[in-house]
Amino acid sequence: MKILLDECVTKRLKKHLSEFETLTVRELGLGGTKNGRLMQFCVDNHFDMLLTIDKNMVYQQNMDKYAVTIAVLNAASSKIEELLTFLPNFKSQIIHFEKHRIYILDK
């Protein structure tokens, strides 16, 4: 599973996803990239998922165009302490995720 962490997600989350191939938007030099271009980058570079806390993604993207999954952690902030509380649910559900879909995850 190849995961791209959106720039609104702290890069500190990456080490807690070590069982996956996880890269960050910033380490790839994509900071400030618009969501549509970021989605196309995911497809072009064989990412399975974009992990974000940007709840607006639900309304912004036509997922029929992108063979990728968006997972939105329904977090109030990007603080690592809060994001870690979402990981058990995220990791237990990841095998059920389908491409072309957006999933909003609670704790």
Task: Walk me through the structure.
There is one protein chain. By secondary structure, the chain is of the alpha/beta class. It has one domain (2-105). The chain has four helices and five strands, in the order ββαβαβααβ. It has helices at 35-44, 57-60, 80-84, 87-93, and strands at residues 2-5, 21-24, 49-52, 69-73, 102-105. The protein has a five-stranded parallel β-sheet with strand order 2-1-3-4-5, with no helix packed on it. It is globular and about 30 Å long. It starts with a strand and ends with a strand.
Helix content: 10-25%
β-strand number: 5
In sequence order, what are the helices and strands, one letter per element? EEHEHEHHE
| Number of separate structural domains | 1
Mean pLDDT: 95
For the sheet with most strands, the description reads: 5 strands, parallel
Instruction: Give the distance, in angstroms, between the N- and C-terminal Cα atoms.
Output: 21 Å
| 3D shape | globular
